[in-house]
């Protein structure tokens, strides 16, 4: 089963951005239990403007992550995490390189039905 993971990263190498302050999300598609590939870069400025209130910004970010099942960030608040989950997106706080984190996450999800 194929699914997408969004990674909050400033450089495409490390998971290094807070969910609410992320400027961009690198989106990877997991094709099977062992393989993933980068498919697109989603810039936060495409989702919302700098002058939106917190709730509107959160809603628009969730819309911008449409099609993703998981988001990896360095930090996320409990409220934002709950709202993501209610919209079908799981969030994980991770401080690691994308190269190290994705295989670990994929291995974990291969044991549960996503």
From TrEMBL:
Transmembrane segments: none annotated. Coiled coil: none annotated. It comes from the Bacteria. Pfam families: Nitro_FeMo-Co (PF02579). Signal peptide: none annotated. Residues 11-106 form the Dinitrogenase iron-molybdenum cofactor biosynthesis domain. This is Dinitrogenase iron-molybdenum cofactor biosynthesis domain-containing protein.
């Amino acid at each position: 089963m194929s699914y997408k993971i969004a990674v909050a990263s400033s450089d495409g190498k490390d998971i290094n951005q807070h969910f609410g302050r992320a400027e961009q999300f690198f989106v990877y598609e997991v094709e099977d239990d062992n393989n993933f590939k980068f498919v697109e870069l989603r810039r936060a400025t495409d989702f919302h403007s700098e002058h939106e209130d917190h709730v509107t910004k959160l809603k628009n970010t969730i819309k911008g992550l449409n099609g993703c099942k998981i988001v990896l960030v360095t930090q996320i608040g409990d409220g934002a995490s709950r709202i993501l989950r209610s919209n079908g997106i799981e969030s994980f706080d991770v401080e690691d390189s994308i190269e190290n984190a994705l295989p670990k996450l994929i291995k974990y999800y291969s044991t549960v039905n996503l």
